């Protein structure tokens, strides 16, 4: 399946490139849940830009708004100057999302990437508290710049820093430990005991569902208890909702069903709706303590992203999409459970929430092999987890039910193939 | 000049917002060197998105390419999968820029912001050498995430980290110290002396002209000597060409006249040409040591930026733009020198290279006042330097000569006004 | 009980002084288990120099050797030059202690304090492995210099650093968590999981019985499992035997009954036998990788300490002292259990091993009050634990049984007094 | 010259041992400036325990006091409890040294080693200011524990840490740079410029004469200017007077002739007078902010050291010793100048102050060779400097003039021998 175009990447791009290796084709156009390649193939997208395309590719409403804005020479890049595009976004974001949820948070625009949002949140928590340590959780993923990487669990990624990564205390995530061990009691015991070595932290950062870490979903009860623990100890709670937010698990903010209002919230990925770089940090007003320009970045004012992000808010005027996601989530869950039930030898387990699901496969190499097979079958999907042991499903939230079922069928066949291969004592990948 | 729209930012945006304070208007459309606001005013842009709009706003060629790509449902967001848009960019970038300059560097796409490029470069230098410390220079500015902030000199920005910033050794930049003190001899002496406390570093990061730091231009001789010193000590030399590159000082890479080939080069800002978020790191092949995915980021595959960036390369097929920049740079230089000569009381000095120039004003508050006056007169320009003591000029490289002169006239009047006010013993700003 | 002499400390000494506040008398002479003060009082010493006087005060054999050495103008201070005094110590230490236990360790002399031994051990573990993080345990105490303090759990002590303390991962000590939680399984799970955020450490440092941390004794089974875990993961195991070693728990090395041979062992406190500053680090030969002078210190060659330390080895030629300690330990245990049984309202628990025992008192302030009362009754004893909640007993190992019982009677009365006071709803201390 | 006893060190001691390699003999007794070995040889001591034996070996007055104290069963080890021995020392120290010099400092006893004193000083400066960075100087030596090592310049020693050493900014010491470069102007420029990357430090630590760093003496003018700079910027000035203090350069405190009163002063080495481990930190009363026990250490109460230290104060009741040191210093200076004048090929330079002098020899290996030759000739002396390029002289302050001249003659012959060998194109050492 190699092509002359693939050679271009081989010749010119750094060895760090990765997805072009997992999906060896050259893509051209895309619409909704479908992606097309130079070779003429059409793929069902169960990856959705790693969660950056919750509304599918090239949504018509956003596309129209974007074309109109560009055609009219709307200012494309404006740093953090005032623009009409940004003002409209701010007003609508407040009206559609913040006000109805009783969130009084200020909107801070960092650079337009998730890691920049996380870095900003960490800096702010440290500045607000005057403390240094951040509590993060096993299998957390928050980004690749130095501050975010320090709170990211993955050892391969951490190794890239070339520096000891510090000022983080890792605690076991919700169900990291079995045997009924309660990770929050442990955290609280460490905080209470004046000899535990745990310096009072500057804050806690958490994903409600860990995407890169293996589609590990914390229960709402656990999240509520974490929130209460933070309140008790006066620790800013930062929810990194970059992958789980924007409706991925049903509600716009993934933490809503837990009944909590985190102090600091990071959004990015699907925020612009169209896959354009954009990020923001929501800050409780009394923590909005940076002075003018104390954090900044050249691309904070990506107007095109404001335009599509504003248009994307139409999905959140009522709960139609949320209900849709929950319903489709159940379809995925059932399908995964069926695959798991059929192949106990793969040591399967089904994980996740809403349209953020995964099939954990304990058999070595199995999850990677399933994704490779699925790609051959016309479905784009990736693994996650520290040992790439989970086949992850992040379809567009707007995917039609039929296409969703079609993709799941392809995946089920891929699982069959891999199981068969393993049963014959062959390596998972062929 | 406040407007109902400005209130939106006041109500909803974080206190960290800054340029909306310096330029209290709400901008709508832009073209070339002109920006328009809701109030109907038209401004000459001497700021150019802090150097992200070297080709002016909404260049027609790029605009057409962009509209065509979007209209045709070109894939907008593709992580680091292979896409036609990205392949085209890579081929043309190599053909137009790298090959003719004998640069064999690999292209690494970090997240689409300058700070992400810098973080990647620093991680890589550390990984390649197995060492930790980075030599940076006084008044360096490299970004606001934790790794980049550690090599940034500005104390106000550093204070935002909420952590001790470490693993950096600051050395005096080219002319930071007067009295004929040679900063590179000092650096070398520190390296040579086994008791200096300077651990052998993982690399050196430098801007050829410091933008945020006050438009301080290192001589080409100094840069060459720095390059040779790095070679002698086996220290990777990282040139952060985010602001000074993309033709800002004349040649595409600002370091070309120094006759050097840095080991690692960071580009962003004007790279996409249209103000869209994009960044890359050029890596000497033998230093291209990250494994697949060891550094990553969701928005590495911003296809629209690839499309406009490819189109922007048309400016670099010959040296017309370079010559143009040098010529216009002289016009700016003369105008600034005239202002300086007229107002010795403001303790002026003229700085910079190409179309990256500045008027340093030793009189307290004067530079800020000049920019505020210029804005009233219809010119957008900002200060830089640790005490905001330099009125900075970054006009689009493509600005017509007449508009350039017109803007300089506005600035000259602003200087007159401020000088008059100060002479009357009033504060610089009124 | 204040005296003119106590005023001297008030006037001239830093506010950091502490034991002079707990024991407000001025001491003059001492012998065996008895200490005398200016006021003519005689105290039974249940503190023994915080474990530095295991053989009691001014042992006659050591005293004679010391007087002879000084009288003969033996070289008093010799850095790490060769001296007869040091050679004798090395030979005898090897013959009496190392060889019989099959320990092939090299003897490294750091500066003559416990914290210097710990710092050396940590540096060495990091150098040997090329890694940075050290696993330490809740309620560990290893010293007050920066490296040792980073692996010390106490939050008050840590606060004195004025720096974020880093490169340490704290794990729950043996029984830190109840509910059957297995702290070593947790540690191993963190090591196994590539996403746990736990970078492969440079080593593990542990006390077998935590002295300052509250007289918490790890079981020998737990220590054996920790040792095996370290071997499995190739992590140098450092046993800080500064307080628990030199026979305090029975055998010379506290870890002997666990059947392990730690890679690196720190000794100090009672090493010189006479209370003179001395410390050493035992290093597995293949880890003895410092170059000449890579660690040093002016007072490594404290000859007088070598002389008394050599003499002290006479206690270890057979197991008489060990058996003695174990027997007396049982006496203490019984006495403490009786106190605990009599006063359930004080929420007591009995802790420790050998002659390193403690009475934990959950009632706030009770342990401090008990020690204060005991001092009035003529017994010197201190608290330990993160909330000073344990009344600690460290009598000289050589204390006669009668004196031991006498001291325990004083303590029992002190407990009665405090319990009575609390029962009357008065504060513990009066 | 190897002996059976030297084998003991070879067999049992860590490879880190160093002076036993430079001085391959086994020492037994010592008196004044003379040291004797097992082989019966007698050496003139020009090393004086690296400055820990300023009053010579086994001074009779101190010896008598010590024997009396031990014989009478004076309490040997007392932590920081009140003892008569300690009270006497405090009173006399105040009366003889502090009061006459107008120093109102409090006396803080850290662990009994120089590095412990430095660690305490650094912790305190950070606690007092709430800042982290410490300014240290090229070729500084402050100790080998983590905090002290971070402010030590020597790269070999730093390498032993196994960690990046941080929170230190190294500045060029007094004459580190030639060409009339003013290191203090540079420091002040870095402090003034808000973009220099130099975070406002927690303090400055300095030796007035760098011992290990190569006998580099700062002028009193430079020290006064450093003191004033610290006052201007509110930076605690820490003088590490561990090697240069206790009369080594003439006055008790080496900084006295500069007319300054440092905020924090570290003393150790010759403090006890007899080579016994002892250290203290003098703290300006308003900086005496540690709470009780916030810094501690088992061997703070080394009573024998208090006894000899009290006796040693007899040398400071008038200025006889000071004058003596200055006079003998001139003798050394003249002798070294003569050697330098005679051997320009060795690229010599003469350094130092009082009885802390050195002969720098630019010829590679020459200084080491000179010390080895001198040892053969019966003089103990060591090198210092980052490349061991300085033959260092630290004779006892009390050395008789005749013995001093005798030792200098031996050294002069050693220099002749080495020069001859080099002239014949042979390696310096033979």
UniProtKB/TrEMBL annotation, chains A, B, C, D:
Note whether Zinc occurs among the keywords: no
Swiss-Prot/TrEMBL cofactor(s): pyridoxal 5'-phosphate
Does the keyword DNA-binding feature in the UniProt annotation?
no
* GO MF annotations in UniProt: diaminobutyrate-2-oxoglutarate transaminase activity; diaminobutyrate-pyruvate transaminase activity; pyridoxal phosphate binding
Q: Which InterPro entries does the record cross-reference, listed alphabetically?
A: Aminotrans_3, Aminotrans_3_PPA_site, Dat, Ectoine_EctB, PyrdxlP-dep_Trfase, PyrdxlP-dep_Trfase_major, PyrdxlP-dep_Trfase_small
Q: In which pathway does it act?
A: Amine and polyamine biosynthesis; ectoine biosynthesis; L-ectoine from L-aspartate 4-semialdehyde: step 1/3
- List keywords of the entry alphabetically: Aminotransferase, Pyridoxal phosphate, Transferase
Task: Give GO terms for biological process.
Answer: ectoine biosynthetic process
Please report a single Pfam family linked to this protein.
Aminotran_3
User: So what EC number does this one have?
Assistant: 2.6.1.76
Q: Which family does it belong to?
A: Belongs to the class-III pyridoxal-phosphate-dependent aminotransferase family.
- Give the protein name, as stated in the record: Diaminobutyrate--2-oxoglutarate transaminase
Species of origin reads: Roseospira navarrensis
Q: Organism classification, top ranks?
A: Bacteria, Pseudomonadati, Pseudomonadota, Alphaproteobacteria, Rhodospirillales
